[in-house]
Specification:
Number of domains: 2
Number of strands: 9
Low-confidence stretches: 182-191
Helix content: 25-40%
Number of helices: 5
CATH class of the largest domain: Alpha Beta
CATH architecture of the largest domain: 2-Layer Sandwich
CATH topology of the largest domain: Alpha-Beta Plaits
CATH superfamily of the largest domain: ACT domain
Mean pLDDT: 84
Largest sheet: 5 strands, antiparallel
Structural class: alpha+beta
Radius of gyration: 20 Å
Length: about 190
């Protein structure tokens, strides 16, 4: 089973390496990893897709929280969430096939982003199964080049995975000292 986890981490050099090393040391296989900025300065969001048994998520979560740079971890696997991947695909296409291929792209709600005499480049953002179906349909034309991002996702509704007052005392102190939190904003640090 594929599990989708989100980790909010300090945006500092070496954090990605520490997270990847943790997975390597524990023998966890990362199916995909997408990292990007968040709405909060100094915080990056890692979306990690793991392939494994049900108990793996709890174990990974506990291991991630041991890293000082990790602020929050959430499991999106069974959550009501919007999950997407992005792909750019360069497809062989003669001028005679162009209208047919453009119709296929529109069915999947993709966009043509480049046109050449013998190719089309298509962009698609979709869930994994829909992405797989789209790529399967393109195989008959001839895929010249393909790049596909890892999965990203957000919980639906007002619930978020944003940074809240859930940090350990040690992590909160680290974040305060790093300048991410003002000294007066530590209601979650115990006395």
């Amino acid at each position: 089973m594929k599990h989708t986890m989100v980790a909010l981490v300090e945006d500092r050099p070496g954090v990605l390496n520490r997270v990847a090393s943790l997975f390597r040391r524990r023998g966890f296989n990362i199916d995909s990893l997408a990292v990007g900025t968040t709405e909060e300065t100094g915080v990056s969001r890692m979306t990690i897709v793991l392939d494994g048994a049900e108990g793996i998520v709890e174990q990974v979560e506990k291991q991630l929280y041991k890293l000082i740079d990790v602020i929050k971890v959430a499991d999106l696997t069974n959550a009501e969430a919007v999950v997407r991947e992005l792909a750019l695909v360069k497809v062989r296409c003669s001028t005679a096939q162009r209208a047919e291929l453009i119709d296929l792209v529109e069915i999947f709600r993709g966009h043509v982003v480049d046109v050449g005499p013998q190719h089309l480049m298509v962009e698609l953002a979709a869930e994994g199964e829909r992405m797989d179906a789209f790529l399967k349909n393109l195989e008959g034309y001839g895929i010249l080049e393909l790049v596909r991002t890892g999965r990203i996702g957000m919980i639906r509704g007002s619930e978020t995975t944003a940074v809240h007052q859930v940090e350990s005392d040690e992590a909160a102190l680290f974040h305060m000292e790093s300048g991410r939190l003002p000294e007066g904003d530590l209601p979650f640090v115990s006395d």
